[in-house]
Amino acid sequence: MDGRRCATCKKPESDLPSPLNRCAKCKSTSYCSRECQKADWKAHKKTCVDAAGSSGMLGQASGATMANLLFPALAQNTYLHSFSEKDAFNQVIDSYRLRVEDDYSFRGETSGLYNQENPLPHFRKYLDLAESRQGVLPKWWSKEKREACEKLALDSSQWSDLNCAVEKSDIQEHYKDNMMPMKLRILAEKIYGKGVM
């Protein structure tokens, strides 16, 4: 369930004869070929930052500006639009799960699983908010897709199960992306309209 795609041609890794290669500098943007990487360089170089965190543009940025530079698709409300339905569902579910964990850890707030309650009603409120935020959800999102997302969120055989707590390290390990917790937290901030702190 990796769901990774080439940043340029958008081909899913599962359709390619070999795994995607990551940018050697930032290690976060993936490409299917050298040609695709070259074609994207003019746009990518504006947000590319090496693993040590140094870059001309990024060295001058902080806070929300840094997040916007690192994840322009999140800033432009197009982040979920490039994923398959299942991958988009999983990221919505996991952004909620991580936010519930953060609310518990940083604010002492309990809801759903952390309050020994059925998490579905609280998750439905989260989806209501997501639907009210223009552009956050993909254009294909509908009542039927929402129901499919809710069904997936309650499937105990799936990793993105609302009845299971999740932490930052779990997200990093599952997605094999150390930046994924930040992406999911920004997505949750877009949906809630505010951060945890």
Describe the structure.
The chain has helices spanning 34-44, 63-70, 72-75, 85-107, 120-132, 143-153, 168-175, 180-192; strands at residues 21-22, 30-31. The protein is an all-alpha fold. The chain is globular.
Strand order in the largest sheet: 1-2
The main pleated sheet reads as: 2 strands, antiparallel
In N-to-C order, the SSE pattern is EEHHHHHHHH
CA distance, first residue to last residue: 31 Å
Please tell me what the overall shape is: globular
DSSP summary: helix tally: 8
Radius of gyration: 17 Å
Write the layout of secondary structure elements.
Layout: E1 21-22, E2 30-31, H1 34-44, H2 63-70, H3 72-75, H4 85-107, H5 120-132, H6 143-153, H7 168-175, H8 180-192
Antiparallel strand pairs: 1-2
Annotation keywords:
197 residues; mainly alpha; two-stranded antiparallel sheet; 8 helices; 2 strands; globular
Short note summarizing the structure:
By secondary structure, this protein is mostly helical. The chain contains eight helices and two strands; from the N terminus they run ββαααααααα. It has helices at 34-44, 63-70, 72-75, 85-107, 120-132, 143-153, 168-175, 180-192, and strands at 21-22, 30-31.
